């Protein structure tokens, strides 16, 4: 389950309206298009992104590193795509995967501006979370949001994440240290390896 694999895992989940799959090295232009189209929309909610996020060449380098993390099982970067897999509608990343007595990771996500308010992130995360819990055997998924990010807070609450705390000056978002509400989803039925 954990440890370096020679090939990155190929994970492709389907929901009613989306293909939710791990990104791979041929996604460079799709991801560049997504970040270029949503640059202004995502700015208040994300760390400052350098220009390379808007160009396939920047993503080629980054996808090499991400594929390595997929091989190691240390992170899982999902793209939310249309059924033909031509357009990235959003992303959902499970990062900093730790095993041992923790079996935990962080979750981050974003959805393109034109896809807001249709239940798409909820649909995608239900499926991706199930994969992380059942196939990757993650017990705790942590996701944190700025108090004024009501859409994100609502989404997490609907998915069953519970509030665990409040951290001041927690993350550098849009160039400023911003407070965050800390939440987590734990898998009640987690069982040790069979
Ligand atoms: C956070 C974010 C992903 C939430 O997107 P979202 O579209 O609101 O999320 P959901 O998929 O849960 O959709 C819920 C909305 O769709 C509506 N909806 C419409 N059809 C629906 C359906 N079939 N099923 C469920 N919800 C549906 C719901 O009513 C709700 O809208 P409302 O909040 O206006 O009531 C998005 O706002 C985003 O990308 N923000 C910028 C980046 C960001 O903040 N990232 C997170 C940092 S912590």
TrEMBL record:
InterPro entries: Acyl_CoA_acyltransferase (IPR016181), GNAT_dom (IPR000182), N-acetyltransferase (IPR051531). Its EC number is 2.3.1.267. SUPFAM superfamilies: Acyl-CoA N-acyltransferases (Nat) (SSF55729). It is an enzyme of class 2 (transferase). Transmembrane segments: none annotated. It catalyses: N-terminal L-alanyl-[ribosomal protein uS5] + acetyl-CoA = N-terminal N(alpha)-acetyl-L-alanyl-[ribosomal protein uS5] + CoA + H(+). One of its GO terms (molecular function) is protein-N-terminal-alanine acetyltransferase activity. Pfam families: Acetyltransf_3. Residues 18-188 form the N-acetyltransferase domain. One of its GO terms (cellular component) is ribosome. PANTHER family: [RIBOSOMAL PROTEIN US5]-ALANINE N-ACETYLTRANSFERASE, GNAT FAMILY, PUTATIVE (AFU_ORTHOLOGUE AFUA_3G00765)-RELATED-RELATED. Belongs to the acetyltransferase family. RimJ subfamily. This is [Ribosomal protein uS5]-alanine N-acetyltransferase. The lineage of its organism: Bacteria, Pseudomonadati, Pseudomonadota, Gammaproteobacteria, Enterobacterales.
